[in-house]
Design brief:
The chain has helices at residues 11-22, 56-63, 79-99, 138-157, 174-178, 196-204, 226-236, 257-268, 287-293, 301-310, and strands at residues 2-6, 30-35, 46-50, 68-71, 105-111, 161-166, 168-170, 208-212, 220-221, 223-225, 245-248, 255-256, 272-276. The protein is an alpha/beta fold and 325 residues long. The chain has a seven-stranded parallel beta sheet with strand order 3-2-1-4-5-6-11, sandwiched between helices. It has a two-stranded parallel ribbon with strand order 7-10. Strands 8-13 form a two-stranded parallel ribbon.
């Protein structure tokens, strides 16, 4: 079993590589990492191919003898690079995959921006059958194009593939920084919601945000812990139930900012500040993955909050922002 992994040096990829090489179900499994700018640490049963995923020759070289592909490489709001990686790169990978005599499964890791994240409104939980409603921007557009392109290869060529659609991925103290008015990780940008004086008051007061959605209720937003995403990937790998399927991979319930504020008040004595937003509360329904793959996320809101605020970084564990969020 030879697994080609793109994005192997990232937040998810580094955890996935460890889990794949240590999983007793695949004792002889080997990994080939297709890398552009970074190189994973050297280890047994792991080889590296360097080059751009947008280059056909590089992709064909990387695909030689591969049985499974796990495609995670992505680019945020950079139109040229995003199209090269997410559209052109995926096209060359799928072309090489469909013509390969060894290829058995193609797994794509997608994103919930294909269904609008907190920007687009839905009147019921978002399932795999819900319409795609990406928000403005090239990154959300590429996530839709990736899903559609993979689906077309099912239809046109009958390949065995699956897509795992994940929301914002958390690890270590990420979620604490999501709530930080100083060293914030990701969005929303506080400058878009607060005046300069309000933001300074929040920083000095050591407060946490209680985001309010467009309906006036506490915002509900989808997250997934990196370890839960990786267990879902392992559950889908080589699993007949995943064939030509799309799965939402999220926590059992979205994170409720009201519940977060209550938890931090009770456990950390932190006060919250109410912040009105134009955002929409959405629920990325994971029932299909739980039923078909036998997968169950371990993180709920309480655990996500508690571990993020308890995490203490050592000197050799600097905070690394893999992408801006």
């Amino acid at each position: 079993m030879l697994v080609l992994v793109t994005g192997a040096t990232g937040k998810v990829g580094s955890v996935l590589v460890d889990q794949l090489l240590g999983d007793a179900r695949w004792p002889g499994l080997r990994i080939r990492a297709l890398c552009h700018n970074r190189t994973p640490p050297s280890r047994d049963r792991l080889e590296t191919v360097h080059g751009s995923i947008s280059d056909r020759r590089t992709v064909e070289q990387a695909m030689e003898g591969v049985t499974h592909v796990i495609h995670m490489a992505t680019v945020k709001e950079d139109p040229q690079s995003a199209m090269d990686v997410s559209v052109k790169g995926l096209f060359w990978m799928l072309e090489a995959f469909r013509q390969s005599v060894s290829a058995q499964q193609f797994m794509l890791i997608g994103g919930d921006c294909a269904v609008g994240h907190i920007i687009s409104a839905y009147d019921s939980p978002i399932t795999e059958q819900s319409p795609r409603r990406p928000y403005p921007g090239v990154y959300a557009l590429t996530k839709v194009l990736e899903e559609v392109m993979l689906e077309q290869y099912y239809i046109q060529y009958g390949i065995n593939g699956c897509c795992l659609r994940a929301p914002w991925i958390m690890e270590k103290d990420d979620f604490r920084h999501v709530l930080d008015f100083g060293e914030q990780f990701g969005g929303p940008d506080w400058d878009d919601l607060l005046t300069a004086q309000q933001l300074e008051d929040c920083r000095r007061g050591n407060k946490v945000p209680l985001l309010i959605d467009a309906s006036g209720a506490p915002l509900k937003r989808n997250f997934i812990h990196v370890t839960d995403l990786v267990t879902a990937m392992l559950a889908a790998l080589d699993n007949p139930a995943s064939r030509q399927n799309l799965f939402n991979i999220a926590m059992d319930q979205p994170v409720d900012y009201g519940a977060v504020a209550t938890r931090l008040s009770e456990t950390r004595g932190l006060s919250s500040v109410r912040i009105e937003t134009p955002f929409h509360s959405n629920w990325l329904d994971n029932a299909k993955a739980r039923s078909a793959l036998g997968w169950q996320p371990r993180y709920d809101t309480a655990r996500l909050v508690d571990e993020a605020f308890a995490y203490q970084r050592s000197a050799d564990d600097p905070r690394k922002v893999w992408y801006v969020g």
